[in-house]
Design a protein that fits this description.
Blueprint lengths: L2 E12 L2 E10 L2 H12 L2 E2 L8 E7 L3 E7 L2 E4 L2 E4 L4 H9 L1
Antiparallel strand pairs: 1-2, 1-4, 3-7, 4-5, 5-6, 6-7
Amino acid sequence: NSMVELKIYKSIKFENHITYEFVKSISNKSVMDKILERINASTPEPRKFIGKYRVNFSYINKEVPVFISVKYLKINGVSYTANSNLEEYLEELLK
């Protein structure tokens, strides 16, 4: 786990599509670890949803986007349900 930074983007509806606007970058290791811990504790569950947030986990040689809406998340096209509200947690970080 060589995570360098976490970038948070918020969705914006534009006519009939959604775009994501950069909001904040986080490099605090304990904050990144807490988010990762919540994501790793989630369980796969097929579900269609539009992510309110896109969180890019930046590693030394790759970036992994995770789409989040309430307690649902999508990584590489696979959806999961977290056991806590990830959206609320992100919104606390953005205050």
